[in-house]
Amino acid sequence: MKTKWKIELWCWIFLVPTLLLFVLFQGWPIAASLYYATLDWSGLTSDATYVGLDNFANVAKDPYFWNAFKNSFKFMFGVVPLNLIIPLILAVILNRPRLKGASIYRTLIFLPVVTTTSIVGIIMVFIWGSDGAVNDALMRIGLLSTPINWLGDAKWSMFTVVLISVWKNLGINMIYWLAGLQGIPKDLYEAAEVDGARGTKLFVHITVPLLLPIGAVILLLNVVNSLKVFDLIKTMTNGGPFFATDVVSTYIYRYAFSSEMGLPQLGYASAAGLFFAVTISALAIIQSVLNKRIKGRAKL
Amino acid sequence: MKILRLSLFHVVMTAFCIVWIYPFLWMVSASFKTQSEFFSNGLRLIPNSFQLGNLVRAWNEANFERYFINSVVISVSTILIVLLATATCGYVLGRYVFKGKKLVLGVLVASMFVPMEFAIIPIYDLIKHLGLMNNLLGVILAEAGGAHIIFILLFSTFFGQIPKELEEASIMDGCGFFRTFFTIMLPLSKPIVGSVTIMQFIWSWNSFMIPLILTLSSPNLRPLAVGLYALRGENVVDWTGIAAGGTIAILPIIVIFLFLQRYFVDGIAGAVKG
Fold first, then answer.
1. What does pLDDT average to over chain B?
2. What's the pTM?
């Protein structure tokens, strides 16, 4: 009996590093956000005054917050479908075992994933600028007669950041799909081929249903990650032009850490952050419930 | 016919891939161009002559030597902390039954869906109160913080599969809990250690928001990802210098990835499957 007790003690000792990091950087921040959100506080001085739910009321009243909120979802609805469908097609093409060069293609498509987002953002400002490569190419093939200011024109800026984000993250989604495809037993295809199924039919009746569970996980990851977008928008447009690409994370940054708005307002920014964190968590919970349903059905 | 179709496929795919990585090729090429060539012939991928001036300027004058060292120090320290924390946690979660295990696991998994980016304000405040605001340790701790649940699950799955006899043998040899882990179990988990190291390396090297916020008042602590952003703010005309800085920041990570991509891709695939 004594050794069992000793082992339990060791287990908890081994958990200490993780639990310590968790409490300091996840548990405490959540509790502290709740508290900060009730303060009128710049974060710089010690003269915080308790204001109850005023910050939340002010966030709810601010049209710029709702603009950012809407843009976050616009961005998500732009990015997520493209980042599920295109990588799936590429994964199916590149999963063929006898295809020569498949691993080179995979590596090249994956490359943007491992590179620094903020630096990619800075470089993209030039490539998508008025005299950058994109305009030049489109004008040479005759699709454009005058260059478009892709990031500086409010009509185009959201479209452009969505495209660049898809380019950046497409590779990782392709790897997710490939992992799913490789998990499908080969004999299922062989059996179906014996029954006379070919090409698209195989894809619709075997690949798609068996990929649904992993597809649900990929969807969840993409929804949550696209709502958290910061690096790319901060470096490419900083939320502009005229707030056309301002998302909740850039909105919060502006209030909490930059001097653009005068004195920082940490309390107000915390309220906005919490508001959005609750939104994302609700979405994640709804989706993981749905995922369980899908998984349950796939097992039948 | 089949050969024709296959070669057409490869031609299309190769063209697609070149367009796909054009931004990197362009960046590397621009970092060798002179300012005048950059503006007169900005889109060409092969420079007229290879000028090393931009790279030297970025490294010496724009402080990229400093940023580079900061990036290395932050990444390496973060990896060590994360490895220690996730390996020990994954080990006990994967192999032992103890009171409170379900609770710990549940809290860790639930935290995966809480968007921590919005907790950056309390983290900033915490680092300030710990007195680490003008210290790389602040950035390192904030980067290593968080639950890294994916890594913990990778470790716990791996350790869960190791046969019990191995552990019993080591206890017979007189090893305690601690020594069994560090001398027998941890060395066995090399593939997972490899995956976690490379994945965390890529994430730390590229991370932007935390170092941006924690180095707002201390430019000397910036890593490359933040340094280049600040340089662009100060200096919008020096595009070749910015391209050179981008090359210094991105090339190491691409090279490391190309050599170790198996670990990275396997780790990601394992994480999403599990």
1. 87
2. 0.89
